[in-house]
Amino acid sequence: MKVFGIAGYSGSGKTTLLEKLIPALTARGLRVSVIKHAHHGFDIDRPGKDSYRHRAAGASEVLLSCNGRWALMHERRDEGEVSLNELLSRLAPCDLVLIEGFKQEPVPKLEVYRAENGKPPLFPARRDIIAIATDSQLATALPILPLNDIAAIADFVMNHLELQER
Protein backbone atom coordinates (compact mmCIF):
# COMPACT_ATOMS: atom_id res chain seq x y z
CA MET A 1 0.00 0.00 0.00
CA LYS A 2 1.23 3.46 -0.86
CA VAL A 3 0.66 6.18 1.75
CA PHE A 4 0.20 9.87 1.00
CA GLY A 5 -0.71 12.63 3.45
CA ILE A 6 -2.86 15.71 3.26
CA ALA A 7 -1.71 18.28 5.83
CA GLY A 8 -2.75 21.77 6.79
CA TYR A 9 -4.30 23.76 9.57
CA SER A 10 -7.92 23.39 10.59
CA GLY A 11 -10.17 25.19 8.14
CA SER A 12 -7.70 24.97 5.24
CA GLY A 13 -9.91 22.59 3.22
CA LYS A 14 -8.22 19.22 3.76
CA THR A 15 -11.49 17.29 4.08
CA THR A 16 -13.07 19.10 1.12
CA LEU A 17 -10.02 18.32 -1.01
CA LEU A 18 -10.14 14.63 0.00
CA GLU A 19 -13.86 14.53 -0.76
CA LYS A 20 -13.05 15.53 -4.34
CA LEU A 21 -9.73 13.69 -4.69
CA ILE A 22 -11.03 10.25 -3.66
CA PRO A 23 -13.53 9.92 -6.55
CA ALA A 24 -10.92 11.28 -8.98
CA LEU A 25 -8.52 8.52 -7.93
CA THR A 26 -11.10 5.74 -7.76
CA ALA A 27 -12.28 6.72 -11.26
CA ARG A 28 -8.75 5.85 -12.39
CA GLY A 29 -9.22 2.34 -11.05
CA LEU A 30 -7.44 2.73 -7.71
CA ARG A 31 -8.70 1.23 -4.49
CA VAL A 32 -8.36 4.07 -1.97
CA SER A 33 -8.66 4.05 1.82
CA VAL A 34 -8.47 6.97 4.25
CA ILE A 35 -7.20 7.36 7.79
CA LYS A 36 -8.15 10.59 9.55
CA HIS A 37 -6.54 11.73 12.77
CA ALA A 38 -8.86 13.55 15.18
CA HIS A 39 -7.22 15.84 17.72
CA HIS A 40 -10.18 15.43 20.03
CA GLY A 41 -12.08 12.38 21.17
CA PHE A 42 -14.91 11.03 19.07
CA ASP A 43 -17.57 8.39 19.29
CA ILE A 44 -19.40 6.71 16.44
CA ASP A 45 -21.71 4.96 18.86
CA ARG A 46 -24.75 6.20 20.79
CA PRO A 47 -25.57 5.68 24.46
CA GLY A 48 -28.24 3.04 24.92
CA LYS A 49 -27.37 1.05 21.78
CA ASP A 50 -26.19 -2.53 22.26
CA SER A 51 -22.69 -1.87 20.93
CA TYR A 52 -22.29 1.14 23.25
CA ARG A 53 -23.42 -0.97 26.19
CA HIS A 54 -20.91 -3.70 25.24
CA ARG A 55 -18.04 -1.18 25.18
CA ALA A 56 -19.21 0.41 28.43
CA ALA A 57 -19.22 -3.05 29.99
CA GLY A 58 -15.52 -3.39 29.18
CA ALA A 59 -15.26 -5.08 25.77
CA SER A 60 -11.90 -4.39 24.10
CA GLU A 61 -13.41 -4.50 20.62
CA VAL A 62 -16.93 -4.39 19.26
CA LEU A 63 -17.58 -5.13 15.60
CA LEU A 64 -20.86 -3.92 14.09
CA SER A 65 -22.03 -5.53 10.89
CA CYS A 66 -24.94 -5.09 8.49
CA ASN A 67 -25.59 -5.71 4.81
CA GLY A 68 -23.64 -2.77 3.44
CA ARG A 69 -20.80 -2.20 5.94
CA TRP A 70 -19.04 -3.19 9.08
CA ALA A 71 -17.21 -1.11 11.67
CA LEU A 72 -14.72 -2.21 14.29
CA MET A 73 -14.44 -0.12 17.43
CA HIS A 74 -11.32 -0.75 19.46
CA GLU A 75 -11.09 0.72 22.93
CA ARG A 76 -7.53 1.72 23.73
CA ARG A 77 -8.33 2.35 27.40
CA ASP A 78 -4.83 2.77 28.90
CA GLU A 79 -2.85 1.97 25.74
CA GLY A 80 -2.08 5.56 24.71
CA GLU A 81 -1.99 7.05 21.21
CA VAL A 82 -2.04 4.58 18.34
CA SER A 83 0.72 4.77 15.72
CA LEU A 84 0.08 5.28 12.03
CA ASN A 85 1.80 1.94 11.30
CA GLU A 86 -0.60 0.14 13.62
CA LEU A 87 -3.57 1.77 11.92
CA LEU A 88 -2.21 0.90 8.47
CA SER A 89 -1.85 -2.74 9.54
CA ARG A 90 -5.58 -2.83 10.30
CA LEU A 91 -6.64 -1.84 6.78
CA ALA A 92 -7.57 -4.25 4.05
CA PRO A 93 -5.14 -4.22 1.10
CA CYS A 94 -5.59 -1.28 -1.24
CA ASP A 95 -3.58 0.75 -3.73
CA LEU A 96 -3.43 4.00 -1.79
CA VAL A 97 -4.05 5.16 1.76
CA LEU A 98 -4.65 8.88 2.07
CA ILE A 99 -4.05 10.22 5.55
CA GLU A 100 -5.52 13.43 6.87
CA GLY A 101 -3.71 14.93 9.81
CA PHE A 102 -0.72 13.04 11.23
CA LYS A 103 1.44 16.12 10.53
CA GLN A 104 4.38 14.61 12.39
CA GLU A 105 4.45 11.31 10.46
CA PRO A 106 7.32 11.16 7.93
CA VAL A 107 5.27 10.33 4.83
CA PRO A 108 5.06 12.43 1.66
CA LYS A 109 2.44 15.13 2.10
CA LEU A 110 0.56 17.72 0.15
CA GLU A 111 -0.04 20.86 2.20
CA VAL A 112 -3.41 22.54 1.76
CA TYR A 113 -2.70 26.21 2.38
CA ARG A 114 -5.09 29.14 2.57
CA ALA A 115 -3.64 32.56 3.42
CA GLU A 116 -7.02 33.72 4.75
CA ASN A 117 -6.60 31.29 7.67
CA GLY A 118 -4.02 33.69 9.04
CA LYS A 119 -1.58 30.88 9.82
CA PRO A 120 1.88 30.42 8.35
CA PRO A 121 2.49 27.63 5.86
CA LEU A 122 3.80 24.34 7.24
CA PHE A 123 6.19 23.55 4.37
CA PRO A 124 9.17 25.62 5.48
CA ALA A 125 9.52 23.51 8.64
CA ARG A 126 8.39 20.14 7.23
CA ARG A 127 10.70 18.30 4.84
CA ASP A 128 8.01 15.70 4.10
CA ILE A 129 5.74 18.29 2.46
CA ILE A 130 6.50 17.77 -1.21
CA ALA A 131 3.89 20.05 -2.81
CA ILE A 132 1.32 22.68 -1.91
CA ALA A 133 -2.28 23.00 -3.02
CA THR A 134 -3.28 26.62 -2.66
CA ASP A 135 -5.12 29.55 -4.16
CA SER A 136 -2.34 31.90 -2.98
CA GLN A 137 1.03 32.98 -4.36
CA LEU A 138 3.92 31.44 -2.40
CA ALA A 139 7.67 31.76 -2.73
CA THR A 140 8.95 28.18 -2.81
CA ALA A 141 10.71 25.73 -5.06
CA LEU A 142 8.06 23.10 -4.22
CA PRO A 143 5.40 22.33 -6.81
CA ILE A 144 2.36 24.58 -6.39
CA LEU A 145 -0.93 23.02 -7.46
CA PRO A 146 -4.15 24.98 -7.94
CA LEU A 147 -6.36 24.10 -4.99
CA ASN A 148 -9.41 23.53 -7.18
CA ASP A 149 -7.66 21.54 -9.92
CA ILE A 150 -8.43 18.06 -8.63
CA ALA A 151 -7.19 16.36 -11.83
CA ALA A 152 -3.77 18.04 -11.45
CA ILE A 153 -3.60 17.01 -7.79
CA ALA A 154 -4.59 13.42 -8.65
CA ASP A 155 -1.94 13.37 -11.41
CA PHE A 156 0.68 14.63 -8.97
CA VAL A 157 -0.15 11.99 -6.33
CA MET A 158 -0.17 9.17 -8.89
CA ASN A 159 3.09 10.31 -10.50
CA HIS A 160 4.88 10.82 -7.20
CA LEU A 161 3.85 7.38 -5.91
CA GLU A 162 4.32 5.72 -9.31
CA LEU A 163 0.73 4.45 -9.34
CA GLN A 164 -0.72 3.21 -12.62
CA GLU A 165 -4.22 3.88 -13.85
CA ARG A 166 -6.21 0.67 -14.28
From TrEMBL:
Name of one Pfam family that matches: MobB
PANTHER family linked to this entry: MOLYBDOPTERIN-GUANINE DINUCLEOTIDE BIOSYNTHESIS ADAPTER PROTEIN, MOLYBDOPTERIN-GUANINE DINUCLEOTIDE BIOSYNTHESIS ADAPTER PROTEIN-RELATED
Annotated ranges, domain Molybdopterin-guanine dinucleotide biosynthesis protein B (MobB): 3-135
Name this protein carries in UniProt: Molybdopterin-guanine dinucleotide biosynthesis protein MobB
GO molecular function, one term: GTP binding
GO terms under biological process: Mo-molybdopterin cofactor biosynthetic process
CDD domains the record matches: MobB (cd03116)
